Amino acid sequence: MSDYTIQQEDIELLKDQGMVAEDLEHSMQVAEKSLEISRRMNADLDMELVGRGALFHDLGKTVTHEIKHGLIGAEKGAELGLPSAVNWVMEKHIRGGLTEAEAVELGLPVKDYTLHLLEERVIIYADRLVDIIHDGLVEIADEREAETRFKEILKENIQYGKNDITTERYYGYHDEIQGLMK
Asked: Which residues partner with 154 through β-bridges?
């Protein structure tokens, strides 16, 4: 596993696409948190995919903040020549990897949105943690407390889990990733 550092040219690409400062800050925080978590895991991860996938996960928010921002981001990523694996992160990150039934319910194309790669699950987990850490809705002493209280926080704050199906999915990612910590 070789390490990875967020590249300035990727940050500039997001700015050039019109990403507003608040969304860019969130994307950078998710990338940094994803990389930090990955470095603590006993797993052979593609650190470039973790870093770039996390950084670009909300590219579609340059167009809309609606549920379709994942699909739009993946389309924009393909147009920009980003790697397919990064585009898949964008497409599938909505609610942590939808089932076909959830896709139908949300008006998205029916396809496989499940997160097959550990790198994808790390990014989604980091995305939830960054929201918990930075939204200010939950009082935590430090970033690690967000991890140790993750399930409790999701149970008590439905906006992080969205619904029971998604919350259970996030619980599974939490258990898997925490189980791989060094």
From this structure: none
* DSSP structure string for 35-55: HHHHHHBSS---HHHHHHHHH
Domain ranges of the chain: 8-179
Angle subtended at Cα 117 by Cα 130 and Cα 177, rounded to the nearest 5 degrees: 50
Whole-number Å distance between alpha carbons of 178 and 172:
10
CATH 1.10.3210 fits domain 8-179: yes
Q: What is the pLDDT of residues 79-91, one digit of tens each?
A: 999 999 999 999 9
The CA-atom distances, in angstroms, between 178 and each of 39, 125, 150, 154, 182 are 12, 10, 11, 16, 9
Tell me if the pTM is above 0.85. yes
CA atoms within 13 A on the CB side of 156: 10
Per-residue model confidence as pLDDT tens digits over 148-174: 999 999 999 988 988 999 999 999 999
